[in-house]
Amino acid sequence: MIEVEQDVQTPNGAVSISGSYDSRFEGVFKEFEQNFIGRDEVGAGVSVTWEGKALVDLWGGVADAESRKPWTDKTMPIVWSSTKGATSICLHILAYRGLLDLDAPVSEYWPEYGVEDKASTTVKMFLNHTAGLPAIKEPVPAKAFYDWPLMIKILEDAELWWAPGTAQGYHALTKGFLCGEIVRRVTGQTIGQFLKKEISEPLGLDFFIGLPDDRMEDVATMIFPEQTDPPADFFLSVEENPDGIQSKVFTNDGGHMEEFQTTPALKSEIPAGGGLATAKSLARIYSPFACGGEIEGLRFVDRDHLDRMSAVSTACGLDKSLLVPMRFSEGFSKTMDNRRGKPGNQDSILMSEEAFGCPGFGGSIGLADPGAKMSFGYCMNNMGPGTALNPRGQSLLNQTYKSLGYRLTKFGRWYAG
């Protein structure tokens, strides 16, 4: 491993890059460096495992742009929807253990939800964004996201946008509460507790849904992005259609988007978009699933369940929430090439067909590629535009695939050889 401890000059002054990488992944290091030099990176980390071993673990920049506090190996930004990956992993672990049937009606575990027009909802529909509840129509009370029982009651009473299973629309914030309540009903634990006990502690992760008090000093200060010109149809709809899904996602959250960096928000369990993690932990949480479901003697799923995690479950030419084409497995995003879409609607995630993971608003991502035996994690505080993988993260992922001997086809798939 090549140890790194060097300064790089950026438009905002010199910053340090630290960590290590295997010589085969020198391209990832050079791309990481270039992100700071020429692509407006402020603070970030990237990590790659191969066959379960960490072969890239780099971090650099500043955790807070104003104070210039250095980014360390313990710095954790909010990873937004990359949290969904950890949430989905929790449900698949329960399914592998025989405690949860993903094809069963939700009512078997959560009777108060699975009634009337929600009666046909299955657990799988919570995972693959077809449950019909991508946003909440009725006004959400202030700070409701920090009150779990209140949110569960709101979801039980909420009006659906479509009949369960009949359409696909990204459940941007509701998915976490829906899936998290399933975990609570099955195990008696909150999803943050289950993640800590069953995944983070055994794997040695800095990955939290509900941040403990002793880690508050490790939180990076997020920088909201300026959107592209022209803006994506998603953001146009937020402004133009106050009763639409997009606006309800962004504005009907009890004020969370204005308060997401506050202590109450960080300490609350928001399993669709409130997780905090290092890049190393984003990669490592997926490492068992890049290695057949097992790592270091710890088995999380078998190969049958791994196939379920990887296989496309739903796909459409226009996701009802994101307003771009999207493909999902049961709980994860699949590779999606929208680069030929109209300007503003080109958000993409270029992976191999076997890979699965979850990008977060602004561009963080964690993923597993079982075919390549690789897992990948990237997070940052200067969020990129759009709703998928930002160009900085994609450049690092591209170099990772190149280092493994993969090639990118003209249709946006990475293939071996």
Structure description:
With 417 residues, the protein is an alpha+beta fold. Helices cover 29% and strands 18% of the residues. The strands form five sheets. Strands 1, 2, 3, 4, 5, 12, 13 and 14 form an eight-stranded antiparallel beta sheet that branches. Helix 1 (26-38) packs antiparallel against helix 13 (391-403), helix 2 runs parallel beside helix 5 and helix 7 (233-240) packs across helix 8 (245-251). The radius of gyration is 20 Å and the shape is globular.
Write the H/E string, N to C.
EEHEEEHHHHHEHHHHEHEEHEEEEEHEE
What is the second-level CATH architecture?
3-Layer(aba) Sandwich
Strand content: 15-25%
- CATH level 4 superfamily: DD-peptidase/beta-lactamase superfamily
Radius of gyration: 20 Å
Count the beta strands: 16
Structural class: alpha+beta
| Uncertain residue segments | none
The number of domains is 1
Name of the top-level CATH class: Alpha Beta
What would the CATH topology be? Beta-lactamase
Span between termini: 25 Å
Seen as an oligomer or otherwise, the chain set is single chain
Biggest beta sheet attributes:
8 strands, antiparallel
Categorize the overall geometry: globular
Query: What integer is the average pLDDT?
Result: 96
Question: What's the layout of helices and strands?
Answer:
Blueprint: E1 2-10, E2 13-21, H1 26-38, E3 43-50, E4 53-64, E5 69-70, H2 83-96, H3 123-127, H4 148-157, H5 174-187, H6 191-203, E6 207-208, H7 233-240, H8 245-251, H9 256-259, H10 263-267, E7 276-277, H11 279-284, E8 294-295, E9 298-299, H12 303-310, E10 314-316, E11 326-328, E12 356-359, E13 365-369, E14 374-380, H13 391-403, E15 406-408, E16 414-416
Antiparallel strand pairs: 1-2, 2-4, 3-4, 3-14, 4-5, 6-7, 8-9, 10-11, 12-13, 13-14, 15-16
